[in-house]
Each structure stands twice: as C-alpha cells, then as structure tokens.
Amino acid sequence: MRALFLIDGEHYPPVVLDAMQSVQQSLDAEGVAAAFLGGTEKIREGTDYGVPLVEDKDPVSAVQKALAEYEVDVVVDLSDEPVIGYRERMKIASLALYAGARYLGSDFELKPPDLRPVSTKPSLAVIGTGKRVGKTAISGYLARLLATEGFDPGVVSMGRGGPRLPEVIEGHKMEVGSEYLLEALGRGAHAASDYYETAALSRVTTVGCRRCGGGLAGEPFVSNVLEGAEIANGLDTRVTLFDGSGAAMPPVQVERRVLVAGANQDPEYIVGFLGTYRLLLSDLVLLTMSEEPMADSEKVHGLVAAVRKVRPDLDVIPTVFRPRPVGKIEGLRVGYVSTAPPAVLDTLSRHLEEHYGCEVVAASGNLSDRKRLGADLEEMSGVEVYLTEIKAAAVDVVTRRGSAEGKPVFYCDNDPVGEGLDRALLELAREAVANRAP
Question: Quick one: which of 234, 236, 231, 238 has its CA closest to 207?
C-alpha cells in the first residue's frame, strides 16, 4: 500500500519520522512522499523525512500537488492544529477521495465510495447536495429531453421509499391518473416515490430502487441499485440515467454526472465539507432556485464564483423551477399543492394562471408535512380540482382526498429554466455515448 504522509513544522522532526515508521509498519504500507502543510516552530532546514517532500502555497494546494505527482492508496494525516483545521481537512478529504485514496487520521478514516462498473450502456447520473434541491425534477427533465432527442433513455431511480426488489415501470404505458396511483398505494407501494414520479411524468421506462443511509461522500449504507442497474442493462434502451437520492449517490460508475445544488443552501454545503468531493466528481452544476426570495443575485453570483474557485473548468448554470401540469386545467379553479417554500408559492401560482389559464384559489407548500397539509386542505374552499406534485403525501393524502370529494386530481412536474440548459445537458449525453463507443 502506497502512503502519502501529511506533516507540519509544528512537530519535532524525529517525532514525525518515528510516527511515519510506526504507521508504515501497522498498515504494511510504503511511504512514497510527504506533503508539507506548513508551520515553522520545530522545523529545521534540510530535515530529511526519508521520502520526497512536496510543498506549495498552502496546505490544500500542497496535498493537491502531491496527489498529482504520486499515485497513492492512503493519505495519512500526521498534521494538527494550528497548521490545519476542520475546513482544510474536509477539502483534503475531498482531494484524497477523488484520487481514489483513503484518508486516514488518528481517530478517523474516510474511504472513496465504491462505484461499480456495472452499467453496460452509456450512462449519466444526477446527484445532489441535499434533499429538496430539485434533483428528481432535473432527472425527469433530462429523461424527457433525451427521449425527445432520440437517445432512448431508461432511468434507474434510487429513493428512501423504493421497493424491496427493483421494480420496472414502463412509463409510456402508464396511466398518469389518480386511480393508478391509488391502486399502487393499495398494494403497499410508496406511490409518491421518485420512480413513480419519473415514470409517470417523463413517460420513460424506470427501474425503482431503494437505499438506506448515506455516507459523508455519498455512498448509501444499503441499496439495491446494483441489481437495478443489471435490470436496466437488459431493457430495450440505449442510455441509462441514474437518479440519486438526497446527497447520496448511486454506487455505479458513469460517464458523466450532473450535480444539482440549491442556491438557497448554505454555501458550505456546496463548496465546503464533502460538497467539494461532489464538485470534483461532476461535469455540470445546476444551481436551482436561483431567484428571490430563495437567493438574491449577489448570492447566486457568489456561489458560481465559489464553485469555479474549486473547479475553474466546471460549467455552472443558475436555474429556476416552474410547474408544468400533466393534463388540461384551463378555466378551472385549482388548489395547488407542492413542496415549494411558502416564499415562492405566489410566483408559482401566477405562472400557472398566466401560462395554463387556470385560477389558483389556494396553495400549500406542505406536501411533505402531512399534519400541516391536512389543515391546509381543510381550509381550501371553492376548489374544483387539485394540482399536486407526485411527492411525499401526494397520493395518500391529496389524491385520496380528491377521490373522496369527487374532485379530479391532476399532477404536475417542475421544469427547470436556465440559459443554455438543454444545450449543456445534451452535450453531456453525447459525450457519454462517445466515451462508450468501441
């Protein structure tokens, strides 16, 4: 095992040398280099650490330089405060994991997610920096775009509420209506799970999978995605799109990745912690909810600049979401239900009225809070139809209520809108296909 040691000048060199020897013996490892992170208190000019010494302008840059020069299996951190702190360590962890190396300290160990080469088709993945950033909406939009452009996509969807065994839903044969989803609910399925949403709204063949837990670097603790990927290999499709779950990534190797981040998030969740790792792993960043009051233009510009500081070559596209009903709601009085924050409900309601000719008489953003949603629905008066996203309580609460009241329930998707979005997504798809060409 090839080891890169991280050392500093705040430790007495003989102590560092003894520590390096001890670690090499305990790990059965060979030290190939040491990255000097800084500090001068105990360092002496000309000190020989027994391996090549790599230095640069700051600790993170020194590690990045060392990882570029040496192929290593483990990065062993023998440094400490005040030379390196929590933020620096997270950036170093991201660099180590991206290089395929374990990051090991005295009381911690991080290892790269095990991304398996299971897909036999050109593949893309959509991953996120957290929950409720619009990742599934992006996946669905990308699936529809690829279908329109002749890529014949299939989707492998990973969710917290997926089936025990991977389930195939042929979206083009699916009836996008309340009876179908209520029947699925009656069978015990989580009918508002991401894979039902994608199949119903994107009309493509979707393999529903589940996962539980998510590591700091995005690996699920348990999932059946590998089995789902094997099923996708046998489908009559040409490209496979893997849809992540929250900040957890599908544990598969893909040709290209789209990272979805919310402009309303704390910037550290995007460019800090192990968000840095996700940036290093991705080929395009979509910054969703890039509008007030979710995020003002100053914050959006700041996030774009922060991402490019980590990855200057990475394309970042600010986007906003707008609801797209599946079904005709013109002339109807609508009760609109979504997971959107209250601050943007008026904007989304106006969009529905202006583009689809309906009247939104009431709106709720509590689709993921059943108790509050129930109270909101009780207060909706004058509603002729319900319009809801297929998420959370969309089926067991909203659809059931509509059925009990004899009122139609329509479903809606959330389409991303951003300059150059389609062009960037299609370019990634073409690159994925080209990279798989024999």
Answer: 231
Q: Which helix (H) or strand (E) holds 206?
A: strand 205-214
The pLDDT tens digits for 271-313 are: 999 999 999 999 999 999 999 989 999 999 999 999 999 999 9
Quote the CA–CA distance of 194 and 52 in Å, as a whole number: 50
Which residue's structure tokens are 């002496």? 44
Note the pTM of the prediction, 2 decimals.
Answer: 0.90
Other C-beta atoms lying within 10 Å of the C-beta of residue 359:
14
Those residues with Cβ within 8 angstroms of residue 120's Cβ, 6 or more apart along the chain or in another chain: 233
The CA–CA distances, whole Å, from 433 to 296, 425, 429, 438 equal 37, 13, 6, 10
**CA-wise closest residue to 287 among 417, 156, 107, 397:** 417
Spatial distance between the Cα atoms of 411 and 387, rounded to a whole number of angstroms? 5
- For residue 256 the two structure tokens come to 């290209």
Residue 157's alpha-carbon distances to 38, 79, 103, 194, 201, in angstroms, are 45, 41, 30, 7, 14
Tell the residue number behind the tokens 């994608």, with chain if given.
198
What is the per-residue burial (b if ≥16 Cβ within 10 Å, else e) of 171-200? beebebbbeebbebbeeebbbbbbbbbbbb
**Cα 206 to chain centroid, rounded:** 18
